[in-house]
Amino acid sequence: MNKNITLVPVGIVESEALSWLARRLSEILAQKVIIAEKLPLPSAGYDRRRQQYQGAALMAMLSKRSIVGAERVVGVIGADCYAPGLNFIFGQARMGGREAIVALPRLHQSFYNQLEDTALFRARLLKEVRQPVEIVPGEVFANVSDFDRGIRRLIPRYEEMLEVIVRCTPPQAKKILELGSGTGALSLKLLRSCPEAKLIALDYSPRMIQLASVKLESSGCSARASLKEMDFGDWANNQGSESVGTGFDACVSSLAIHHLTNEMKLKLFQRIRQGLKPGGVFWNADLIVPESVELAEIYKSVREEWAIEQETTLAEVRSQMGTNVSRGHSSQDQLATLEEHLQILSQAGFKSIAIPWKYYSLAVFGGYVEL
User: Fold this and answer.
1) Which DSSP symbol is given to 357?
2) CB 73 within 8 A of CB 98
3) How many C-beta atoms surround the C-beta of residue 69 within 10 A?
4) Best label site of 24, 209, 290, 311, fewest CB within 10 Å?
5) What band does 239 get if pLDDT is binned at 50, 70 and 90?
6) Using CA atoms, how far apart are residues 12 and 282, in angstroms rounded to an integer?
7) Which residues of 213-245 are buried (b: 16+ CB within 10 A; e: fewer)?
8) By the 8 A CB rule, do 158 and 341 touch?
9) Pairing of strands 4-10, 33-35
10) CB neighbours of 54 closer than 8 A, spacing ≥ 6?
């Protein structure tokens, strides 16, 4: 069962604003959002001289509440708040923790003796609640529903890169494994290109799996796809192998494996080879370490230019990204050079190793299992 986000009103909080916030968060994060029973403002943490509540005290109060099934607990505070060294705060969160708060008074235009603006208040409220949202490696954007649009603005020639994997996957393949399937973009392309294929797709993000499920259902391909909430790092260590199986004609991955250390990459590549049939193929599309400092600057400028072509900027796209926290075997980018990837493939036992596509700091590479 997917964990939910729980909103806890503290003090006098407008029910209409709370209901609207719950609906929008549910739409954006693809998670169930629950409104808990209202709590009174506590006496602890209140500074009479300042007439404000200390944010840390409110978060401590929330942490002591028994809220079952909540992945995130957000206190919606009907009072002005502060933190030591700051005159006021709009919100506060503890990285790695479950609790966060957002203080409502200063989000209202009326606080500044101006005409109240409901749309502006709601925009500010949503921004403050979303700011502490933590994402697991691979989700990229704080709002996971932004992924499909955002990744195409962030990664140059993203569609072309996926098409290369599809073109290099035998159309007669009957059983395909995808690692880190995300929102299902590559999954859908493969199922359309390989009409007899059954696809098993692994991803540890329930939010991404939900988006992929909707995409495959709407395209009429869901009957041939099995989406599993699973860390492929666990699979590399032979955990849960029975639910994945073997005998695959192809294994593919895109923009996922770079979250593993090189040691784990080797374990994964070895596990992939073991799971493939003789003659089976593995293709991985991923980021690579630039070959020199000079090229790193060139690659950076290419991404900037690409973003501008998409009528945005790289800074604007990055402003929509969430805060990565480690999950299972994955953490923030642990890039390897292309040469290192090829060596790991060879060590894992792959033959006919190839690089069918490379574009600056992006590459599609892989190899075959001997017949």
Assistant:
1) E
2) yes
3) 11
4) 311
5) confident
6) 57
7) bebbeeeebbebbebbebbbbbbbeeeeeeebe
8) no
9) parallel
10) 45, 46, 47, 81, 82, 83, 84
What CATH number is associated with residue 324?
A: 3.40.50.150
Which pair of structure tokens corresponds to residue 147?
């992924």
- H/E run at residue 339: helix 338-347
Q: What is the 3-state secondary structure (H, E, C) of 239-280?
A: CCHHHHCCCEEEEEEECCHHHCCHHHHHHHHHHHHHHEEEEE
Q: Are 368 and 351 in contact (CB under 8 A)?
A: yes
pLDDT at 139 > cutoff 90: no
Query: What kind and span of H or E run contains 20?
Result: helix 15-29
- Burial class for 300, CB neighbours closer than 10 Å (0-12, 13-18, 19+): middle
- Helix and strand numbers, DSSP H then E, in the chain: 13, 18
For residue 56, being part of any structural domain is answered with yes
- For residue 137, being part of any structural domain is answered with no
Question: If pLDDT is split at 50, 70 and 90, which confidence band does 225 have?
Answer: very high
- Tell me the pTM: 0.68
In degrees and rounded to multiples of 5, residue 208 shows phi and psi of -70, -40
Per DSSP bridges, beta strands 134-135 and 323-324 are: parallel
Amino acid 1: pLDDT: 43
Instruction: Say if residue 294 is in the same domain as residue 167.
Output: yes
Per the CB < 8 A criterion, the answer to whether 56 and 63 are in contact is no
Give residue 70's domain range. Answer: 4-132
What is the per-residue DSSP string for 183-249?
Answer: TSHHHHHHHHH-TT-EEEEEES-HHHHHHHHHHHHHHT-GGGEEEEE--HHHHHTTSSHHHH-S-EE
In a domain, 166, yes or no: yes
Q: Give the pLDDT of residue 132.
A: 54
Handedness of CA 182, 160, 200, 234 (dihedral sign): negative
Q: How far is CA 331 from CA 33, 338, 343, in A?
A: 27, 20, 22
